[in-house]
Design goal:
- The complex is a heterodimer of chains A (295) and B (160).
- Chain A is α+β, with helices and mostly antiparallel strands and 295 residues long.
- Chain A folds into two domains: 2-33 and 57-165, Uridine Diphospho-n-acetylenolpyruvylglucosamine Reductase, domain 3; 171-285, Enolase-like, domain 1.
- Chain A contains eleven helices and 13 strands.
- Chain A has helices at 9-18, 31-36, 72-78, 84-91, 96-99, 104-110, 117-124, 215-227, 230-233, 239-252, 263-285, and strands spanning 2-4, 23-25, 44-47, 57-58, 63-67, 127-132, 135-140, 145-147, 150-151, 158-165, 171-176, 187-194, 199-205.
- In chain A, strands 4-5-10-6-7 form a five-stranded antiparallel β-sheet. Chain A has a three-stranded parallel β-sheet with strand order 1-3-2, covered by helices on one side.
- Chain B has 160 residues and is an alpha+beta fold.
- Chain B is built from five helices and five strands, in the order E-E-H-E-E-E-H-H-H-H.
- Chain B has helices at residues 23-30, 87-95, 104-117, 123-129, 141-155; strands spanning 3-7, 10-14, 49-52, 55-58, 71-73.
- The longest helix of chain B has 15 residues, at 141-155.
- Classes of the chains: A alpha+beta (295), B alpha+beta (160).
- Chain A binds chain B through residues 1-3, 5, 25, 27-29, 31-33, 35-37, 41, 45, 47, 49, 71, 73, 94-98, 100-101, 180-182, and chain B through 1, 18-20, 22, 41-44, 46, 49, 55-58, 60-63, 65-66, 68, 110, 128-129, 131-133.
- Chain A: Keywords: FAD, Flavoprotein, Oxidoreductase.
């Protein structure tokens, strides 16, 4: 094994072009587990730890450009205002030790359906900035997840950053697990209200081969909110609407039975999370202060 | 490969380090610092917790090469040179927060990190700060007592 230690981003891209099978390592919270357990023996480890711009974010204008290796600890502390959904999701990542190391780039690179950032990235309409020596392209998050632990990156590409519009409305994230810390999601749900375009986006985690949106639920809700004049009236949502939305979210999932839960449980729990998080975001939209709490 | 970094204020060099090796392995097996414990090797248990450039991390998930040139603080660096225990170590002894002792080094480093950042933590803060450290013996109550005791002593609200 070779340990490649580029000192700059251009050097990292050159190394990835020369060794397309090199495994990038930043926080190491996924990669080192695979190496410790002998599940992976890459010929080259590509250490991104020295590339400072990967650990920076900037929020000029209406978009946040979040460096791939900004650790979750800082996302939670610094971005709860601009990216509330992602900050809430980051808050549920593992433990302080892991949040100090792991970042969104790692979640995307691994592309596990259980990665905590994915529902928030889907709900926020993120774009992934994929870069190689050939240039930069922006991959819409909807096109990024291509299969179980597979993504749309080309072999010579590295994730430089994620771009997310600053929130224009309430966002929520909820996750089911056996305890609050150190939990791989049994299932997870993210929702973002986008009042500027009178739209709603969602993200489902751990309940399909890839992270997915609940598109039918989004379309139903957007139509109901528009037809009922809810965006302007800001009244409470009818219980039947909440129930139908929850049912559509549960129906969008394609879960499996595994050690963490059954498919039936995941579907049921997703419906509950969908109803709760929609209620929370809507109450927040109506101007009623509420403190985000555990689902 | 050779890896050079600072451990507890002292410059250390490790030779013949395998590229896939963890910082934890280097500390324990190459530098003779077995205080950080090796248990789950997947970041679940926190028994290998150290500070890397001031950040609390699981040393089993840091590739040795990533520590090059960095500053590492382990449990061995908590007590003074003359062996005087740090406030957190003293409080763990006095509160009976140690049973088999395997998780203790990681908990000490995590608790020390908490009190450095937040000298008077709430119970919620303490639970959150220690949520990445598993103990299979004590049931945690005495560990929480110890952290409260260390905080109170440091604040001078109880006698050391």
């Amino acid at each position: 094994m070779d340990f490649l230690r580029p000192a700059s981003w251009p050097e990292a891209l050159a190394a990835k072009a020369e060794h397309p099978a090199a495994v990038p390592i930043a926080g190491g919270t996924d990669v080192m587990v695979e190496i410790n357990f002998d599940h992976r023996r890459p010929e080259h480890l590509l250490d991104l730890g020295r590339i400072t711009e990967l650990r920076e974010w900037d929020g000029d204008g209406d978009t946040v450009r979040l460096g791939a290796a900004v650790p979750y600890t800082r996302i939670v502390e610094e971005l709860a205002g601009d990216l509330p959904g992602l900050a809430l999701a980051g808050r549920t990542v593992a433990s302080p030790q892991i949040r100090n190391r792991g970042g969104v780039g790692g979640n995307l690179g691994t592309a596990s359906p259980a990665g905590d950032a994915h529902p928030a990235l889907l709900a926020g309409g993120a774009e992934v900035e994929a870069v190689s020596v050939r240039g930069t392209r922006l991959i819409p998050i909807d096109a990024f997840y291509t299969g179980v632990k597979r993504n749309a990156l080309a072999p010579d590409e590295l994730i430089r950053a994620v771009r997310l519009k600053k929130a224009t409305g309430p966002q929520q994230f909820a996750k089911v697990g056996t305890r609050n810390a150190m939990v791989i999601a049994v299932c997870a749900f993210g929702i973002a209200l986008h009042p500027d375009v009178r739209g709603v986006r969602t993200g489902i985690g751990s309940a399909a081969p890839t992270p997915i949106r609940a598109t039918a639920a989004e379309e139903f809700l957007a139509a109901e909110l528009a037809d009922g004049g809810h965006w302007d009236r800001r009244g409470p949502l009818p219980p039947a609407l909440l129930r139908h939305f929850a049912g559509l979210v549960a129906g969008a999932a394609n879960p499996v039975d595994d050690v963490r839960g059954t498919a039936a449980y995941r579907r049921h729990a997703l419906g509950v999370l969908a109803r709760r998080t929609l209620t929370w975001t809507w109450e927040q939209y109506r101007g009623e202060e509420r403190t985000p709490t555990c689902a | 490969m050779r890896v050079t970094f600072t451990v507890n204020g002292r410059r250390q060099e490790a030779d013949d380090v395998w590229e896939g090796e963890s910082l934890l392995y280097v500390l324990r097996e190459r530098l003779g610092l077995p205080g950080s414990k090796n248990a789950c090797e997947q970041g679940e248990c926190g028994s290998c917790t150290v500070r890397l450039d001031g950040d609390l991390v699981c040393s089993c998930l840091v590739a040795a090469g990533q520590a090059e040139g960095r500053d590492v603080r382990t449990v061995e660096g908590l007590a003074a040179e003359d062996g005087t225990l740090s406030p957190v170590q003293r409080a763990f002894v006095d509160a009976g927060a140690v049973q088999c002792g395997f998780c203790t080094p990681g908990l000490l480093v995590a608790a020390d990190d908490l009190l450095a950042r937040n000298p008077s933590p709430s119970d919620g803060d303490i639970r959150e700060a220690l949520s990445g450290n598993l103990c299979r013996c004590t049931g945690y109550e005495k560990i929480l007592d110890a952290v409260r005791l260390a905080a109170a002593r440091t604040a001078g609200t109880v006698d050391a």
